[in-house]
Amino acid sequence: MEYIVRGNIPLNGEISVCGAKNCALALLGATILTDETVVLTKCPHIADVDNMLLLLKKMGKKVSRNGQTVQISGKLNTVNVPAEVATLLRGSVLVLGAVLARYGQLTLPLPGGCAIGARPIDIHTDGLKHFGVSVEYDDKGLVCKGKPQPSAFKLRFASVGATENLLCAAVLSQGQSVLYNCATEPEVVALEQMLVQMGAQINGVGGSVLTITGVQRLSGTVFDIIPDRIVAATYLSAAVASHGKVTVSNCCPQHLSAFINAVCGRYDVRLYNDAVTLNADRAVSDYGKVVTAPYPGFPTDMQSLLLSLAALSAGGTTKITENLFENRLQHNADQLALMGADISVNGNTASVRGQCLFGAELCARDLRGGAGLVVAALGAEGTSAVRGVEHINRGYVDLAAELSSLGADIHSVGLDK
Ligand code: UD1
């Protein structure tokens, strides 16, 4: 499937943000920690979430969905994560901690996901080893044995997934565990909050040091998935690229502060409790120097959006350094060059001189990069085709329909893969 986009049409109107993919995946993994019913509301209809629900179902959980509400209950009937689903989504790794906490063993085929870099899981496995779990690899993938025992562990990098897994691993282990250098992304904090609601004892919620006192069991709960900050930033970027005026509602502006500072602050922006209104009816020269970093730094997941905006800016030079995923810059830089962009990549830094872009045939190779290409197409003169929409569908409910509702000329052609 591909998107056909005619650019240079200012977007206008209001659009609401769906629940966050990365929050949904972490919370779904954590449902394994209890047999009782966990109800998640605002659960987005996207491919990664559908695959995670399928994975839970194949492992024995009862799963039902009614609109944006999903209900999960029951025990697992296997600790072998099914390869045919696990390889479809990187998020499958997020069952690791919970399965070990409840069942003390697991095999996990190596996860799929974006082609954005090596994506090792050594921090997850080092932490588990610290918790006394035996970790080996065989031809089926990762093989872990043993219930996690209380311990203290310092993550060598504040990895989102490793923090989530190690937290889930620790909540049922009898005694006190301490995790140092934890990720503080809003999606991690939402997981901490849900676990506390389920009866977990966690000190330091929201911070980088978590002290966990293991409890015997966790109960069911009802929890709202937080708004997707990357989707919100995509809509704001679409407004900037097209010189439009857009209100993004049902979002959390506080979670968007790095993006708002780097991008929206250069335009006429209004912040509300749960909405952002951006009027981007003029061009800016550049976006200065931006470096991706763990929260509250500028998110790597918004880097391709910024790359496109920098390429479309009015003649100045923006420098973007990608510190998290090594392959995230080059592919989109090459694609934007097909539109006439002036970008040079040196190591993990792109130097982007803004200018007019023209429609071209583009190819998305990963989720966030794909959204970045759509944003570039919205700001380009003429018509673009963006192939690889199946990557974009992993994280967006229906990007073409959402952008059309703001007046964009975008439609999909061809069959979904
Ligand atoms: C999560 C998000 C992803 C986002 C990323 C960074 C989910 C499902 N995905 O991915 O959208 O881009 O956070 O905000 O929530 N690393 C290691 N060893 C490990 C783990 C990570 O070296 O064991 C490195 C990674 O290669 C990367 C950095 O740490 O350079 C950050 O990765 P991490 O925070 O773990 O990202 P994910 O949890 O995979």
Helices and strands, with pairings:
Layout: E1 2-6, E2 12-16, H1 21-30, E3 38-41, H2 47-58, E4 62-66, E5 69-73, H3 83-86, H4 96-103, E6 105-108, H5 122-130, E7 134-138, E8 141-145, E9 152-154, H6 160-170, E10 176-180, H7 186-197, E11 201-203, E12 210-213, E13 221-224, H8 229-241, E14 245-249, H9 257-262, E15 268-271, E16 275-279, E17 289-291, H10 303-311, E18 317-321, H11 330-337, E19 342-346, E20 349-353, E21 361-363, H12 367-379, E22 383-387, H13 389-392, H14 399-404, E23 409-413
Parallel strand pairs: 2-14, 3-13, 9-10, 17-18, 21-22
Antiparallel strand pairs: 1-22, 1-23, 3-5, 4-5, 6-8, 7-8, 10-12, 11-12, 14-16, 15-16, 18-20, 19-20
The structure holds uridine-diphosphate-N-acetylglucosamine (UD1).
Can you offer a commentary on this structure?
The protein has helices at residues 21-30, 47-58, 83-86, 96-103, 122-130, 160-170, 186-197, 229-241, 257-262, 303-311, 330-337, 367-379, 389-392, 399-404, and strands at residues 2-6, 12-16, 38-41, 62-66, 69-73, 105-108, 134-138, 141-145, 152-154, 176-180, 201-203, 210-213, 221-224, 245-249, 268-271, 275-279, 289-291, 317-321, 342-346, 349-353, 361-363, 383-387, 409-413. The protein is α+β, with helices and mostly antiparallel strands and 417 residues long. The termini are close together. It is elongated and about 60 Å long. Helix 1 (21-30) runs parallel beside helix 2. It folds into two domains: 2-18 and 227-413, Alpha-beta prism (UDP-n-acetylglucosamine1-carboxyvinyl-transferase, Chain), CATH 3.65.10.10; 21-224, Enolpyruvate transferase domain (UDP-n-acetylglucosamine1-carboxyvinyl-transferase, Chain). The chain is built from 14 helices and 23 strands. The structure holds uridine-diphosphate-N-acetylglucosamine.
